[in-house]
Design brief:
This protein has 517 residues and is mainly β. 1% of the residues lie in helices and 55% in strands. It contains 1 helix and 51 strands. The two termini are 18 Å apart.
C-alpha cells in the first residue's frame, strides 16, 4: 500500500498487517501520481520527475525528469510506463532501460487521466478531450470530445472506453469506430474515479455518491447514498447493516448486494440509538420512545415508553434490553414481557452511551464518567473518570459534541472515547486505566472493536489500533466529513459520515469496497 504526500514523500505499508514498511524520499514537490507493477513502484511529483523504486529493497532505481508543470497522472503496462504532465504532454518510457520512447503532444491543457489496453493508450485532459494513441507507432488515432468539463478519469472494459468529466457525466465510447454510445448522468458533482468491476462500471463523484452501471443496459443499478439527515447510529449483523438518522428513519442494507431492503418508519423525531440481537432490532429516538422491530419481517413489534427525554443509547443481551436517556436514567427492560424491570440512577447529567457484556452494563454520561453496573445486583461496581458536568437544556452544538462520548467493550477491556481526542483503555475487573491512546486532533466520535483491532473515528480521520501494543497500525483516509458511527465484522469495517453516506473498508487491504466488493 503506497500513499503519496504533499511533502514529497511516499509512505509504504504492508498489506494485511498494516505495518509501516518505509518512507521513500526522492521528490522536492508534492506527490500527485502513483503506479505499480510486479517489479517496481512509480511516483510522479509536482517537481516534474517520475521516480522508479524497486519493490522489496525500496531503493531508488532512476529519476525520470523533463516534465514541465508537474506530473499529474501515471499508467503502466507490461512494457512501458506512461506519464501525463501539466503541460499537456504524455511521455512514454521503456521499462528496464528507462529510455524515453516518445513524447506525445495532443492536448492544450494538463493531462489528468491515462488508461491503456492491448492496442491503444488513452489520455484525458483539462481541455475536455480524450486522445486515442496507437501503441508502438504512437500516432494519434482520434480525438474524442469529452463534453463541457475537464476529463478526470478513464476506464477500459471490453469493447468500450469510458471517460468521466468534472461536469458529472460519463461518456461511453465504442472502441474502433470511436462513436459516442451514450452519456451517463447520475451525479450532481464531478466524477472523481472510474473502474470496471465484474461487468459493472463503478463511478465515484464529488457529491459523495457511488453509482453502479451494469455494462450494456446503462441503467444505474444502485446509487449508494444514505439518509437525508445526518446519521447517528450504526449496527451490523451477519446479513444486514442498519443505519439510523436525523430523518427519523432506520435504513436496512443487505451486505451481500448492498441493496436497500427496507426503510423503517415509526419514530416522530431523530433516531439516535440502535441495538440488535439474533431476532430483533431496537431503535431509540428523540420522541422518548424505544421501538422493537422483527428482523425477519422488518415490521414493528413493540413500542416501549419509559423515558421523559430523548433516548440516546441502547444495548441488548440475552435477557434484557437497556435504554439510556437525556433524563439521566438507564432503564432495564425484560425481554419477552417487555416490562420495565428497574431504573438505574447513577449519573447527574444525561446518559449518552451504553455497552454490555456477560457480567456488566456500562453507562457513560455527559459529565464524562462511566458507571460499571454489576448485572447480578444492579449496583455500581466501579465509577471511572470523574470530570464534573452541568445539566442544561441540549443545544445543536451539544448534539455533535456528545457524539464524542463513545464506549466499546471486548473480553478484556473497556474503551472510552473523549472530547479531547483520546481513547482510554480500562482493564475489566481491576478497572485500571492501562492506556490512553493519543492520535486524534479532534474529539472521538465513534468506536468499534474486533478480535485484533480497535477502531476510533474523529472528524480528522479513522485510526486502527493494535490491541495489546496499543500502537496505531493504519489510518483510514478518504472520509471528507465527520464520522458519526463505526461498526466491524469479520471482513469489513463500516463508517457512516455526518451527511449520511456509508464507507465500507475491506480489512487488511484498507480498500473502500462500498457499495459492492
Amino acid at each position: 500500500m503506497m500513499v503519496g504526500c504533499g511533502d514529497g514523500t511516499v509512505h509504504v505499508w504492508e498489506m494485511g498487517t498494516w505495518a509501516a514498511v518505509t518512507v521513500l524520499r526522492g521528490h522536492s514537490g508534492g506527490v500527485r501520481a502513483l503506479a505499480a507493477d510486479d517489479g517496481w513502484c512509480y511516483s510522479g511529483s509536482q517537481d516534474g520527475r517520475v521516480v522508479v523504486w524497486r519493490k522489496g529493497s525500496w531503493e531508488r532505481v532512476v529519476a525520470l525528469g523533463g516534465l514541465s508543470k508537474g506530473v499529474l497522472t501515471l499508467a503502466v503496462d507490461g512494457t512501458h510506463l506512461y506519464s501525463g504532465a501539466g503541460d499537456g504532454r504524455v511521455v512514454v518510457w521503456r521499462k528496464g532501460s528507462w529510455d524515453r520512447v516518445a513524447t506525445l503532444e495532443g492536448h492544450s491543457k494538463g493531462v489528468s487521466a491515462l488508461a491503456v489496453d492491448g492496442g491503444h493508450l488513452y489520455s484525458g485532459s483539462g481541455d475536455s478531450t480524450v486522445v486515442v494513441w496507437r501503441r508502438g507507432s504512437w500516432e494519434t488515432v482520434t480525438v474524442l470530445d469529452g463534453g463541457t468539463g475537464r476529463v478526470v478519469a478513464l476506464a477500459v472494459g471490453g469493447e468500450r472506453l469510458y471517460s468521466g468529466s468534472s461536469d458529472g457525466t460519463v461518456t461511453v465510447w465504442r472502441k474502433g469506430s470511436w462513436e459516442r454510445a451514450t452519456t451517463l448522468a447520475g451525479h450532481s458533482g464531478g466524477v472523481v474515479m472510474l473502474t470496471m468491476e465484474d461487468g459493472h462500471l463503478c463511478c465515484g463523484c464529488g457529491d459523495g455518491t457511488v453509482v453502479l452501471w451494469p455494462e450494456g443496459s446503462w441503467e444505474p443499478c444502485m446509487t449508494f447514498e444514505g439518509h437525508s439527515g445526518y446519521v447517528n447510529a450504526l449496527v451490523v449483523d451477519d446479513e444486514h447493516l442498519y443505519c439510523a438518522s436525523a430523518d427519523s428513519e432506520v435504513v436496512v442494507w443487505r451486505k451481500d448486494s448492498w441493496e436497500e431492503v427496507a426503510t423503517l418508519r415509526g419514530h416522530r423525531a431523530y433516531v439516535r440509538a440502535l441495538a440488535v440481537d439474533d431476532r430483533l432490532l431496537y431503535s431509540g429516538s428523540e420522541d422518548s420512545r424505544v421501538m422493537v422491530w422483527r428482523k425477519r419481517s422488518l415490521d414493528e413489534y413493540r413500542v416501549l415508553r419509559g423515558h421523559r427525554e430523548w433516548v440516546t443509547a441502547l444495548a441488548a443481551d440475552q435477557d434484557h434490553l437497556y435504554s439510556a436517556s437525556w433524563d439521566m436514567e438507564v432503564v432495564v427492560w425484560r425481554k419477552g414481557s417487555w416490562e420495565r424491570q428497574r431504573s438505574l440512577m447513577g449519573h447527574v447529567t444525561p446518559v449518552v452511551a451504553l455497552e454490555v457484556d456477560d457480567k456488566y452494563l456500562y453507562s457513560e454520561s455527559a459529565d464524562r464518567t462511566v458507571v460499571v453496573w454489576d448485572k447480578r445486583s444492579w449496583q455500581p461496581a466501579a465509577v471511572l473518570g470523574g470530570l464534573s458536568g452541568v445539566m442544561r437544556e441540549p443545544t445543536d452544538d451539544d448534539i455533535l459534541a456528545l457524539a464524542a462520548l463513545e464506549l466499546a467493550v471486548d473480553d478484556r477491556y473497556l474503551y472510552s472515547g473523549s472530547v479531547d481526542g483520546r481513547v482510554l483503555v480500562w482493564e475489566k475487573g481491576s478497572w485500571e486505566e492501562v492506556a490512553a491512546l493519543e492520535g486524534h486532533s479532534k474529539c472521538v466520535s465513534a468506536l468499534a472493536v474486533d478480535d485484533k483491532y480497535l477502531y476510533s473515528a474523529s472528524p480528522d480521520r479513522t485510526i486502527v489500533w493494535e490491541k495489546g501494543t496499543w500502537l496505531p497500525v493504519a489510518t483510514l483516509t478518504g472520509e471528507p466529513d465527520w464520522t458519526m458511527a463505526l461498526a466491524a465484522d469479520d471482513r469489513r469495517v463500516y463508517s457512516v459520515l455526518l451527511d449520511g453516506r456509508l464507507v465500507v473498508w475491506q480489512k487488511g487491504s484498507r480498500t473502500v469496497i462500498a457499495p459492492a466488493d
